[in-house]
Design brief:
Layout: H1 3-6, E1 19-22, H2 29-38, E2 42-43, H3 50-62, H4 75-100, E3 105-109, H5 117-123, E4 128-133, H6 136-145, H7 156-161, H8 166-187, E5 192-196, H9 197-202, H10 204-214, H11 223-227, H12 265-277, H13 308-322, E6 331-340, E7 342-351, E8 356-359, E9 366-371, H14 372-379, H15 385-390, E10 395-398, H16 400-403
Parallel strand pairs: 1-3, 1-4, 2-3, 4-5, 6-9
Antiparallel strand pairs: 6-7, 7-8, 9-10
Length: 410
Amino acid sequence: MNISIANSIRLEEPLAPPIFIVSTERSGSTLLRYIIDTHSQICCPGELAGGSLCAHLQLLLSRTVCQPGNNLSDSAESSARALTITRQVFSGIMNAYARARGKSVWCDKTPSNITHVGLLGQLFPTARFLCLYRNCVDVVHSCLEASKHGFMTELAPYAMRNPGNLVAAMTESWLEKTEQILAFESSNASRCFRIRYEDLVYSPEECLQGLFRFLRLNWEPDILMRTFKTHHDPGGGDAKINFTKEIDRSSVGRGTTLPLDRLSSELESRLKRVLNKLEYLTATPQHASTAFVQSRPQASDSPRSRTVQQIFATHIPARLKESAAMLAGTHGTLKFEITGEGTRIWIVKLQGERSMVVEGDQPADCTIVAPEDVFIAVADGKLNAYTAYMTGGVQLRGNPELVNKLVYIL
């Protein structure tokens, strides 16, 4: 936030009913944030940990200026005053951010807000909550896939509690948090909108039209087309979104490969109850290959593979021209070392409207080394670049910030 925006912060009520996305980790909340943030009236920045901030601010106020006796007659008045100031401080910051973005509604997307969702509901009586769910087995699979270099803060306690059975540990994490969201949704039905990740990726327009009706905001028919062509402020969430060009259904059902027979009978029964509440198909762990995910349509055919030479000769120059506005402030050079039968090297120079591709070796700010088949799969949209990196198919050297621009290049 720049100085001029910071100077505009003041204590105030929300400009409009605020929005909170409530979900477990790895439930697709970053995708939903991008879509929400694309709407002409809503801004949804990176993860803010708004619930934690409000909880700590309320505590600070209640133990300092809002103590009984500080011009406040009793503890009830003190608590009410602390809540009011907490809401106005947070709203003042978010309102200033919204105005700077030219929007009127702000949204906070932070999975850890589950812990404080009750407080957020109390602080913001007009707020609307988007309760995002995703099938447990796919969340567990995604949590394990994303934890190759260590578990995120929210998941570490569960892994430490049951290091010998990480499937059970991640299932317990999903259950505890999902049960909290369901309980909040049950007590605040008129303020909550249930959305399932699977519905979002397989029937996005139908799903989102209902969501925006709930928010009492106009449906914008081109919002999905604009989602991945719009700049979104960075901060937290699934890094894979930085390399995504369209809604991807390929992760639905991956969790069916997990050894669910390692769940205790108690955990299995609890899981079935929660999945039933969310209207997911269930079965015994022995039938995991057909359980826990609803039947889904086949993905459309992928683009026909091109040669590496064609990608650098025609595809990337066309993408640079198409993405000129998104790359306008980016300057640097990317070196692509494509291995196979020998190594061929191309340089992509990012320099505004004069961006270009040249073949041959020269110094670069960032180097990307990839086997030919992996590179073609990424360029054809069959493989996410971040997934390729996490699984060892791609190596990176140099400035990692330039790598985030791959979505506008490939």
